[in-house]
Amino acid sequence: MPEPEEGLWLDDAAGRLVRPYTVSNGRTRPTADFNLLTMVRSTGTEPQSYLGPDHAQVLSLCDGPMTVAEIAAHVRLPAVVTKVLLSDLVDCGAVTTRAPMQMGADPTDRGLLEAVLHGLRKRL
Predict the structure, then answer these.
(1) Does the structure show a pLDDT above 80 at 85?
(2) How many whole angstroms from its chain centre is CA 106?
(3) Looking at residue 122, what is its pLDDT?
(4) Cα atoms in the Cβ-side hemisphere of radius 13 Å centred on 98
């Protein structure tokens, strides 16, 4: 699948040229069950049909395990739109998901969430 050219979709002054919900065709509910800490990874299976440049960008990020929150941050889309794109990729077999490893931590723990936020800010 060819890589989308990032410059075609961004304008320095205006920002993203395609509005987020246009990317998901107005859909706000993914067909798969995700949360922000769900781990996503490419299966190596190429989608049978062309899904679009945003799907290709998301798929390119899934070479190694990555959380939904990290993917949303990288593609600069709302989490719900990212979840819709990911569910399309799950439906066509291009990515697989798994629940995050709990390691005894409460996923709603404020300290844990702040650490994830801090890590995302450092990476981006």
Answers:
(1) yes
(2) 23
(3) 75
(4) 10
Residues 6+ apart with CB under 8 A from 103: none
Q: Where are the domains of the chain?
A: 6-123
d(CA 20, CA 73): 13
End-to-end CA distance of the chain: 25
Tokens 């650490």 correspond to: 115
pLDDT at 95 over 90: yes
Worst-scoring range by mean pLDDT, 8-12, 60-64, 86-90, 92-96? 8-12
Task: Tell me which residue has tokens 């719900």.
Answer: 80
Predicted pLDDT of residue 27: 72
What is the CB neighbour count within 10 angstroms for residue 60? Answer: 14
Decide: 4 and 53 in contact? Cβ < 8 Å: yes
Tally DSSP H helices, then E strands, for the chain: 5, 5
Q: Write down the pTM of the prediction.
A: 0.66
Assign residue 44 a region (left: φ > 0; alpha: ψ between -120 and 50; beta: otherwise). left
Residue type present at position 20: P
